[in-house]
Amino acid sequence: xxxxxxxxxxxxxxxxxxxxxxxxxxxxxxxxxxxxxxxxxxxxxxxxxxxxxxxxxxxxxxxxxxxxxxxxxxxxxxxxxxxxxxxxxxxxxxxxxxxxxxxxxxxxxxxxxxxxxxxxxxxxxxxxxxxxxxxxxxxxxxxxxxxxxxxxxxxxxxxxxxxxxxxxxxxxxxxxxxxxxxxxxxxxxxxxxxxxxxxxxxxxxxxxxxxxxxxxxxxxxxxxxxxxxxxxxxxxxxxxxxxxxxxxxxxxxxxxxxxxxxxxxxxxxxxxxxxxxxxxxxxxxxxxxxxxxxxxxxxxxxxxxxxxxxxxxxxxxxxxxxxxxxxxxxxxxxxxxxxxxxxxxxxxxxxxxxxxxxxxxxxxxxxxxxxxxxxxxxxxxxxxxxxxxxxxxxxxxxxxxxxxxxxxxxxxxxxxxxxxxxxxxxxxxxxxxxxxxxxxxxxxxxxxxxxxxxxxxxxxxxxxxxxxxxxxxxxxxxxxxxxxxxxxxxxxxxxxxxxxxxxxxxxxxxxxxxxxxxxxxxxxxxxxxxxxxxxxxxxxxxxxxxxxxxxxxxxxxxxxxxxxxxxxxxxxxxxxxxxxxxxxxxxxxxxxxxxxxxxxxxxxxxxxxxxxxxxxxxxxxxxxxxxxxxxxxxxxxxxxxxxxxxxxxxxxxxxxxxxxxxxxxxxxxxxxxxxxxxxxxxxxxxxxxxxxxxxxxxxxxxxxxxxxxxxxxxxxxxxxxxxxxxxxxxxxxxxxxxxxxxxxxxxxxxxxxxxxxxxxxxxx
Length: 764
Fold this sequence. Notes:
Radius of gyration: 35 Å
Subcellular location: Cell membrane
Helix content: 40-55%
Number of strands: 26
Number of helices: 26
Pfam families: E1-E2_ATPase, HMA, Hydrolase
Largest sheet: 7 strands, mixed
InterPro entries: ATPase_P-typ_cyto_dom_N, ATPase_P-typ_P_site, ATPase_P-typ_TM_dom_sf, ATPase_P-typ_transduc_dom_A_sf, ATPase_P-type_domA, HAD-like_sf, HAD_sf, Heavy-metal-associated_CS
Keywords: ATP-binding, Cell membrane, Membrane, Metal-binding, Nucleotide-binding, Translocase, Transmembrane, Transmembrane helix
Oligomer: single chain
Family: Belongs to the cation transport ATPase (P-type) (TC 3.A.3) family. Type IB subfamily.
């Protein structure tokens, strides 16, 4: 019997680069049966382990790698904590405090380092004993300002590891110690010594043996880069934090109580204000105008306009009445509602969205996994290159100053932090922006699949069409309202979608429904009843004829026109004759035609794939601009259609919402599920659309491609930067301080490039 598995999330402090990620993963996966995925941007690890492995063992494994870990609380507990406190990221340390501390270190270090750099760069400003002032100012910058880097270095060295911080400590430490040696034991401390700064080491004056400006300047540049990185990572995670804090902290629950026989006017229902954590499934709660809906539920009383934009991305408020479903975290803008809770805590749609986004942010693309493997051996290789650089320069007869400068430049320029941030920060921003627009991305694999899609298969009902029947045309021998009133009077007792459409249209036109007696229904054929002393029928044309009602020429013409439009018809007959033809059809979503056009502009050929009959499918396809139709398709036929296109070399996306679409969604290269559909479809999908809008589904493909493009750009920059910069540094063509600025900029560039995704907008 196999050991059951558990899954835990760990918050990890102290990681700074991709090699840190690789080290933590290696320590965790060294435990028997443990699988781990570590993310630098979110500073979190998701661990799957046998139940025999304890949380303390996992935390201890991370500690052996030189970092601190804590078990992450469940999503509903974090949401409650975030509602009570200022929202923060999921790390164990307060990011606001981290940013504040970094800012303080940066400001103080910059003030102290500026004179050091200026004195080194401008010989005319150098006065007698200036070098000793530089030492006095540079010392706190190197040791206090650079403390975060040095602390991480020694923490990992205790466990026999090296990281990006090791390179920083070695580089700045070597520059500082060289300068101290030159001042106390060399010629640099002499009165009247002058120093010239140059960008290129081979041209350096051999008497320029001080590197205090390098030690101080590099520290300031790295602190600035780390501060920008931390602030940007916080901004990147704002969308998820917004999701986690949307729900109300308290809710007004309605409680029934027994009638008071001594006070017949006393209310039998009271209102009680309770914390949201105490709300139970089945409880009835009140939502007033301007309040957030506490949790998912069904409206049992009232009507209101509800703003769902923060959850679905749809800007137009939704009108909700009794029987409507409502999403927790949405806001009632007009009217009050009494809602019956159908889900609470981690089972709500809002919580599942947050969990899906968090899971996606932990993923890694294939290229990022390669980057992680490279980074795990990168730092030791750089140390060897730096040592080799110094030896080669010394053996070729160069000065010790030139050899030292080149080696320090290699150490500083090679830090691989940009590699570690390339994918996770872009995923953090892209998935967060998607969540704001009602798009849930399963992970980087979904982004990679979206890049090459050239065929997009669309289910009809619920995807291209609304899935709700409505009255399209009414032919009447007399008054149209009379036909609708009589038809609605007969259909009012039915829950069939066609009956509901007729009743809704009659209500919209304020057609007064008469009283029906002697009501009779024949399943699948129609209904009859007595109205005002006469028999009235509503149903199929053949049923009307079987019951003895004549179909006249005008009625026959109306039926023929409806057949050409592939609509469903209900005839309304009385006084022995069909006197009305009501044409009912599933309505095409208003955004469908424009969405199909955008799909074509993105290089995707749309195909309507439906189980409906060919005539109806052709009508819908013509309305939205689709030229290729596959109709009468069973679930297995849909899978076969996907496989045929794949076998022909196409990359296929499938959009659907029903159980019958789930297999095709799973088979397709990219599966997209409408959020209004079934759990089976959503479970099989790579992308889920909360609002059910087809336009948003196409935007999801756009966002996926844009995010993948940013990731590829980030990784290219990070790789190209190190590939180009290390040889330049080894050849002595970079001053170490310039190398430090360039290294810090590479990380900042990756983060700022990723933040461009926050500006992604749905297509107009």
